[in-house]
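Closing statement on the FE2/S2 (inorganic) cluster sub-project.
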Amino acid sequence: MPRPERHVLVCLNVRPPGNPKGCCGEKGSEAVFDTLKAMVKERGLGDRIIVSRTNCLKHCSRGVTLAVYPENVWYAGVRTADLEEIFQAHLREGQPVQRLLMPDIPWE
Ligand code: FES
């Protein structure tokens, strides 16, 4: 297996309803994770792009939160409708999707 080009972490943390921190789980992170995994698999890129579930990435109110390595690019408010753009622009072409970048984190 070749060394993967990118690793995507998807926060699937769930908190009880009404928790003031909120969570990615209540914003559809399971669907985001499943959809992105399926996209990678269907396109035969499972050896190039790894998609992993993770617990809280500490930006709960901004979820669904994704982190992409090796670039260390973080996305906020990701929905399944955003995944095609992230997949094509960033995961395939290396161009982060500016409109979805996590605010208040300085990017180069
Ligand atoms: S619950 Fe997803 S970043 Fe905290």
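Helices lie at 29-42, 83-92. With this model delivered, the sub-project is considered complete and its resources will be redirected to Aim 3.
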